[in-house]
Structures
1.
Amino acid sequence: MSFYRAHVLVCAGTNCALKGSQAVRERLVSELEGRGLGAEVKVVETGCFGLCEEGPTVVVYPEGVLYCRVTPDDVPELVEEHLLKGRRLERLIYRQPVEKAVQTVPQMDFFRGQVRVVLRNCGVIDPESIEEYIAQGGYQALGKALTEMTPADVVAELKASGLRGRGGAGFPTGLKWEFAARAKGDVKYVVCNADEGEPGTFKDRLILEGDPHSVIEGMTIAAYAVGAKKGYVYIRGEYALSIERLETALKQARKMGLLGRDIFGSGLEFDIEVRVGAGAYVCGEETALFESLEGGRGEPRLKPPYPTDVGLFGKPTVINNVETLANVAPIISHGAKWYRTLGTEGSPGTKVFTLTGDIVNEGLIEVPMGITLREVIYGIGGGIPEGRGFKMAQTGGTSGGCLPAELLDVPMDYDELAKVGSALGSGALLIMDDTHCIVDIARVFSRFFEHESCGKCVPCREGTMRLHEIMTRITTGEATPKDIENLEALARTMAAACLCPLGQAAPVPVMTTFKYFREEYDAHIKEKRCPTGTCRALASPAVSLAAGKGV
Amino acid sequence: MAREVKKAVDTALVDKIVAKHRTREGALLPVLREVQDSLGYLPQEALERVALGLGLSLSRVYGVATFYSLFYTRPKGRYMVRVCESAPCHVQGAQEVIDALIRELGVSFGETTPDGRFTLEKVSCLGVCGVAPAVMIEDRVYGNLTPESVVAVIQEYR
């Protein structure tokens, strides 16, 4: 193995790629070759580093210096200064908002509050190299499980860790595995739910792009624990790069005997197939996903029976989210006791969040459960751009609730967020500043559900449509106080009668905005006035022209 | 990746795709994906061949083909322009970007430009919310768009 005196990590996550990281990487390689440094300095393409707002990002090791917004034209100077002369190129070094230049990665506010378990390798290794994954301790947990533990031990460790499903529902993973392990039948399946469709969420995409082997390892451990021979990853069709990286990783794992027959000489036989979705939000619901995988319309099934008894192709099935599975190997390696040192009593471990909307550091973060919204937004997130005021944060994606400034100190875990009418959900955090209209955004939420309802059950098919109609009437000034009564009755009916979480959750974002921002609704309904001037039908012509929003 | 819309359906090609996947469990979605990749969309004749080949009723195949937003049963333009109108894009100014797109292309959602070059479609979420507002043209994603920059992006495809 050749020795390199320095490694230059170029983020190849989608966000950085959009900003031209590929050209930066190519220029780096040619520049290093041109200066005869090709054998001394290695350029590595990594998965997402998390600081998407500052992309394309480049990290130079061994010093760990982070350069931001690097363009191909910056490359000759970067190579000249840092890699030839050993001086840091000050003008490209990451600067914290209002503070001075930060020298190395661990010193950044953005990383200080973070604990990286799931994202341990993202932005650190080349996601297309199984050797680098193994060099970071990868597949050791699988080896440990297969050679030192019985399937029952694995289940017990998972149960003891308190890991809960990271797809949104928060069901205890160990318990799910135990049900599947106990279920009768020779044929069982392990399914990875990578149909990430919750608006504002892109964590699963970045985990698969940045560290696909961590998911494969988690699935293989699950297969051993429950006795499955076949696994599927159901991934949304829009995630071209994730699909490509995952396929590459699967080939590498098969070649090394980490998938296939007799894994680690233990007799375990397991392989994984990738299935690509075709564009339906509802397929993120587990039973709808099974229907889709079986070749049908993605319509949810009635539960019970639960998937651990009657799942994919009618067989007992463990279905876990990408992030849940990426937690498995560290738990097996370091133990449940270690895992419980992170997070809260009821929600141990870390959570990956995606920060979007009006926030300085848009991107991907991983923090211990129980951290407050305030710490995330004003600490790691760097606050709201241009010093504007905070209005609300929506947790858990479009099906989550909206929280006002009074709730900024709520600890973020499954139980605490549920108490205030919201949800941890997928980990999406949408931040809105005080220039936005709360009623307008609630209308956008309701439009989403109307579009994505699968149409199988009446309360959802009709309910999402009526919800959107009422919200549209409010934003166009046609609503009456009667609409508010109807809205409340509709929300109750949908929560109780809809078949799956899509319909049950559809009124949640609307009703939480109604609960916490009632005066803004009243302005729209009673005074026919939009306080922020966002709703075009209500804003006076002068206001809409001034805001540049005239039709 | 431009896709040519063919006039007559190449049924032999459809049969070949069906034969390749027919032993897989739940083969219908992979088959439809590949047929669409080859033909540009899913014409009725192709759906009939798929139904026949997989031993399914045409109504079932048609039901699946029309359920998913990435399947098309009508011809579409050479370039598919998908614009996200979900909340994270919305708060970052997606509406202005959508207005600019509609002005630039001269068509509304679900329509194809008269020259057959672009089909405009709204989507729920592209999963690239970190660079909102976002548009996807065929397989390429464009982010951090403004009403001006989205017009420049369209010009690249003219």
2.
Amino acid sequence: MSVAPAGAGDLHHLTIDRPDDFDGWREQARTMAAAYIPPECIVWSADGRGERDLFGGPGRDLAPIPSSQRSVRANKAFLRLARSVMLHKEPARFALLYKLLLRLQDDPHLMEKVADREAHRLTVMAGHVRRDIHKMRAFVRFRAIKESDGTERYVAWFEPDHHILRANADFFLNRFASQRWSILTPGSCVHWDGKVLTETSGANRNDAPAEDATEDLWRRYYGSIFNPARLKVAMMVKEMPRRYWKNLPEARMIPELIAGAQAREADMVAQGVDTFPEALPARLEEIAQDISLCRRCPIGCNGTRSVPGEGPERARLLIVGEQPGDQEEREGRPFVGPAGQLLDEHLNRAGFDRSLIRVTNAVKHFKFEQRGKRRIHQNPTAGEIDHCRWWLDAERRLVKPDIILALGASAGRALLGRTPSVAKERGRLHPLPDGSSLWLTVHPSFLLRLDGEAQMRERNQFQHDLMQLRAML
Amino acid sequence: MPRQREKVQRSVAHYRNGTYKEHMSNLSLSERLEILADAAKYDASCASSGTAKRHSRDGKGLGSTQGMGICHAYAPDGRCISLLKILLTNHCIFDCHYCVNRKSSNVRRARFTSKEVVDLTLNFYRRNYIEGLFLSSGIVKSSSHTMEQMIEVARSLREDHGFRGYIHLKTIPEADPELVERAGLWADRVSINVELPTETGLAKLAPDKDGKQIEGVIARIGDAIAESRDARKRFRHAPRFAPAGQSTQMIVGADEANDSQIIERASHLYNRFQLRRVYYSAFSPIPDASAVLPLKRPPLIREHRLYQSDWLVRFYGFTANEVQQATDADGMLPLDIDPKLAWALGYRERFPVDINRAPREMLLRVPGLGTRAVAAIMQARRCHRLRLDDLSRLTRFISSLRPFIITADWRPTLLIDRLDLRARTTPPRQMELFG
């Protein structure tokens, strides 16, 4: 503040009623500029925010109010800048603007000189205000409370950097006119009751509601939409500075999310990583032995016996099923249960010699759900099939079949790398990268689940597929 | 956790066996929100800008939009959270390898009813958490069926609740064209992902999708947008169609396409269909990723360079061809410097540029000068010749500009020809953030 004592003859003490009162400043600045009062002879202060002159002047101009001597001009660019800078918390804003206003009288092109030191300083200040306005629109968080008449009111506590509340009220009015709301800040508060906007003096944090049940949902959302594989904390802090965090319900999750990100990402990657050794087994016995030790997927770890393929070491036809069932697991041999018997029946009818065919499964262990004493079959997941494919590929390399018959979509996936649609893709040869071909049909257990006419129809279709295959071999 | 997992696997088994009947409906709303937001995080777009201005000052309805979008929060991945970005369901009948929701994937599945999405949107909006809704979906039953469900959400928000906030609908290319057009009447923005930059990539990784069909729908939406703009010139109350335009997304790093091909494709999309935005999403390791895909950290810096190249074309007057000239022999943009600097180093004969005389187009080519700085320079130099000191107030980093410019008091003598210019202008390398 000025060092001159209050009441000095040539010093003007000007008071602006509110910290953001642009019109009040404009009136007084115009009078002063018209009388050629130099900037250093004016002490500006804003009322109500402790910005008042410390020397306790009565707050109105002590020097005689000068009478107008020239008309003062300000172009649009200046007014736009001044309106904005007026909201800045910098106490010197009134004086800085006045100084620029005086210079503008002599240099009408001043506002175009964007590299000018003083104009630039004010432009930067306007930028602060603009950013604060924008951040308030972004970071105000309402909490719903029930009012005495049963309606809801949405109340927010916010701490702006600058005097932007009144200027920003319009935005919230445009958006939330249909609901009642209040925004409380340390400087002042605004309230909307559906008809009129009212202002009250400043509040503190405890005046705002402490919780809102919806915030839990919001936090859940915030934690889930974030991708732990791409941590960019600096970017977040740049756009959402820490000083805002204390009033953002979601921000309390940030440390936990950052700390957990690496672990979450590692999980994401680990789930898909292939941990098989480089070298493929050289003999079928090796495969049979090693699969019993395989723990690379949940099925491998369920304690069941593994079931290797069965049949000649070299075969023109390899039949691939889905996975061993209850009976297969007990005996340790593929296709010995009800589905296997049905398959044998159809193979015989189609004229195959089963002793020349090798049979195996896409998945080597039995996946089931215990229900009472019974073990109910469960389909392996795509991930499990993809894992177990390594064993099937090893077996294929040794057996070198010309044609592979895949029973059902799971077997199809183990050979094609995608889950085929059996209904659409059966009945034609699919070439495989190793030169062999794939023939796709349904799994016999599917036939067992049907009855009556549907079963007859599907069995005929299955038989037809096998006959076609027989003709090709 | 194991029990949870078992429960989920059982549900999946029921689903596969055809006995699935809303087993997931016993998941709470917040659990489903978690699943369906998690599944939506691979969509890069969260923009809420560029739509028609609306407000609800009249006390009817709810919400407003302005030209500029608002980011209501930022996640630790540095991305803005502007919209409630969720899937209606993550059940899907498609099997695209890069997608976490492909039918063969082992993720937890959930679905929302359209009313739940509407209520969630309104509850979040009323508390000023969001600008609106970005709704996408896995495909259940059929593409058209799914699309209808999504349109119902948008319709209900607009008609039943007078919602005037932002709505972005991700349309499904295989759906009935008539439905896609209906979506544009409720939504501010519609988008369809082209998914992969090349046809071969699409064929390999998204076997159920058809590039021709996707482009066909993008073209149809483009026409509808143009038609609606045209109609509004003549009839003030003609219905608006997706006033914020359409956008699309490409996945980077899942197939072999190089940057040059990606730039080419983006340029084709911008020119041919007048898209507002092409988003790039670095392929993230996804839970239960398909064996066909590389599992490594997403090439974030590559994604960033592609966005910079996108900016050069959209705001800096570069042609796609010129950006491609900044790529190396393998068609990749350099990772250590931005594409504008890479271009400038390749065309040193065009520099230095006289800040006080050069046309706007040339100023925009100076590495380190952005569109705002150029606008400020254009204005300031009308009054007097600019010196380095003036420039330091108009731009951020004067030192990296020096080799490329001439001012009233500065002329780089031999700097532009120095062999170590690249090293001198390259920012110090960051610690290994992006493996």
